[in-house]
Amino acid sequence: MMSHSTYLNTRHFGSLDGLRFLCIAAVLWHHAPGARAYHQLDILLVRGHLGVDFFFVLSGFLITTLLLREDAAKGTISLRGFYWRRSLRILPVYFLVITLAGFNDIVLNGETEKAAILPYYYLFMANFIIPEHIGFLHPTWSLAMEEQYYLIWPLLLLLLPRRAIVPVLLGLIAVNVIAAMGLFSYIGITAVTVGDLRFSIGGATYAPILMGSLVAVILQSRRGFDAIAPLLQHKAAPWLCLAFLIFILSSLPKVLEGLPNLLIHTVMCLILITLVVREDNGLAGLMKLRLIARIGQISYGIYLYHLFARGVVVPVSMATGLDNFWLVLVAYSVLSIIVAELSFRFFESRFLALRHKKAETVS
After folding, report:
1. Which residues contact 32 (CB under 8 A, 6 or more apart)?
2. Measured in whole angstroms, how far is the alpha carbon of residue 53 from the centre of its chain?
3. Are 111 and 94 in contact (CB under 8 A)?
4. What is the Cα–Cα distance from 57 to 271, expressed in whole angstroms?
5. DSSP assignment, residue 114?
6. CB of 176 within 8 A of CB of 201?
7. Where are the alpha helices (DSSP H) in 31-124?
8. How many CA atoms lie within 13 A of 271 on its CB side?
9. Among 26, 181, 264, 290, whose Cα sits 20 to 30 Å from the Cα of 345?
């Protein structure tokens, strides 16, 4: 069993790379060519997009944990240090992918009308774009939402009294759920359209990243940790929570907005807790396997590159007559992993080396 002090001193939660693997595997499945045919077999198979939601939960937890621990150790939060580290991790490969995709569509394919929306990707506003996305950039809506969170949440943490953090998070989560249910329209609050952008939180998924932040706040306090950890520290807890998640994903209706999504995200939070309050949890043996952990570590690159890989594999498979669904799924997944690994080793790592070596990290 892990004590609160041990939890606070843990710098690397060993099972979280495995969790990233599960998230990116769900995304790869969801975007696989021909996956829609399998979606008809079981509603569970259409839920691959929720891998992104789990990424949000994980991101909210890790970022908030890092910030709270910095505040506890130093008495303040360095916004400059935080944004510097996040920029080095996120921006280089992200801007590279945006540039390559824009060049492909606008220059090589002659879709010059898309030049008007290209700047919005660089500004992390992809989740507000109205026209058809630039090819290969459809997943960037989620990265835009994360960056918006990174921009605002650390500042709020710095300014808010500690006693106000939980009420503010609960309020923001409630607003998100209510908006997703379309209830704000009854009081006259509607989306605002400006040119090619439509600003609305009605279909947004900020709730899971906020819920991950809430988990971090609860576990950071001794009272919160002592209240929730004993309930989820049994070795079987991760398996039970994961089985419950699979059950509800198979049982809920196709439309998940509002309360169904809240239930899903709550169970995701419970799974996350089971993985961080005990290093030798029941899933640790699987989550810490070298290949699974490594794929999880480079999952950000896989997420950015996987549609490029699909764009290469699909034409080749059709030209060679090897367009079997499972073969294409494996081929484009493997190619995504290879490209992401090469990118991490020879491109992204050069920027990561610029971070302050003594800066505290939590992963």
Report:
1. 310, 325, 328, 329, 332, 333
2. 6
3. no
4. 10
5. G
6. yes
7. 35-39, 50-74, 79-102, 118-122
8. 28
9. 26
Alpha carbon distances (Å) from 94 to 104, 126, 214, 338? 15, 12, 27, 17
Per-residue pLDDT, 299? 98
pLDDT at 360: 63
- pLDDT (0 to 100) of residue 207: 93
Q: What is the mean pLDDT of each run of 10 residues along the chain (363 residues)?
A: 91 95 96 73 78 97 96 92 94 98 96 96 95 94 95 93 94 89 74 89 81 97 95 96 94 82 96 96 96 98 97 93 90 98 97 74 78
Neighbours of 202 (CB within 10 A): 18
What pTM was estimated for this model as a whole?
A: 0.94
Q: Is 75 exposed, middle or buried (0-12, 13-18, 19+ CB in 10 A)?
A: exposed
Integer Cα distance of 329 and 154 in angstroms: 38
Would you state the pLDDT for residue 292?
Answer: 97
Q: How far apart are CA 264 and CA 245, in angstroms?
A: 7
Which residues does 90 contact at the CB level (< 8 Å), separation at least 6?
143, 147, 150, 300
Q: Give 138's DSSP letter.
A: T
**If residue 332 lies in a helix (H) or strand (E), which one and from where to where?**
helix 325-343
DSSP assignment of 278-299 equals: -TT-TTHHHHT-HHHHHHHHTH
